[in-house]
């Protein structure tokens, strides 16, 4: 390959991916590696320095010529990070977002500052799945400046430490309206000795300048961007725009939409929308910083993992032998939450129950979409994306149980593509991130399983 490319890096909870894109938006190369995880009695830990090594390894795996990367951007899960001290990044082993560590920290913060006050100021991010909860539960956190895992990788390439707004929100101590940190809240979690990084505007970048950047193939001075939190960045990469609703299905299924500007300008709107449902939270759209609503009730991948651990049949067989989609009978919220938490339930772990579990999440997503449309004013298409589309039974349920049509994004690597879209602006390839070429969609009417399958074939499913 002798052409200039943009590279997107996605540091996720199961895989670390890197992908290179040409100016026409086509995928030039892709590489990935498992996300390093340490499992023990309390749960899973993410060794951050090993994660960063995996990210660098994924970029090396693209096998690009020297100086051919003219821009690179990074997205990641939200809360995970480490501490930057005078002598470099410290070896923090970070608790996973999906275990219970940090609950005592959240209880303390809510008792000290008021649960509703924290909810309204942070957009419901002062919770168990937040940096302040997880890092506050780590014994002997070193002094320095906190950097998210995406920001830590950017520091390794540029020597500059900073943060992006949607990832700052996942700290649990970022005021999503005033766009400032709640430093006193952070300190009360026992983290006063750890500074918080400055938050820059959407699309801000630092120039590649380190030996690692050169070794990985970045051109001198190439823009390096923190694209943002993985779900919104993947929504951008899937080709979604403000006014549309994104349903991203996978380990966690998020329903996402940008808040209409007139609603976002109403100071009473944010508290009132958070009153409606305990799984609504507020972040920012990566390219513009507009207010964004995320509904995160569902973790179907975790529930399905628990189911498969107890089933005698493998996933392929369960998908193939499950009955046609229908309203679930034995799966309800109590069952789904138990499975998501890894707990066994009184359920026949057979093909019928597998189908009912899948159908439960499809119907739950429909409820979430209606709620998100109500609170954001979004009236555009529903864009369906995510790895769950590779499951034939999940696809069938999405089509058969649908009440309105959906647009299935045929972008194969949405998170890395969203990164490329962001850094493409900084590199001068296009004027706005949404203008990156290379997206595609298949419209699926209710009941049109064949159209859903055609879209999945493009995705390799």
From TrEMBL:
Residues 6-237 form the Carbohydrate kinase FGGY N-terminal domain. One of its GO terms (biological process) is carbohydrate metabolic process. SUPFAM superfamilies: Actin-like ATPase domain (SSF53067). Pfam families: FGGY_N. Keywords: Kinase, Transferase. GO terms for molecular function: kinase activity. InterPro entries: ATPase_NBD (IPR043129), FGGY_Carb_Kinase (IPR050406), FGGY_N (IPR018484). Belongs to the FGGY kinase family. PANTHER family: SUGAR KINASE (PTHR43095). This is Sugar (Pentulose or hexulose) kinase. It comes from Salana multivorans.
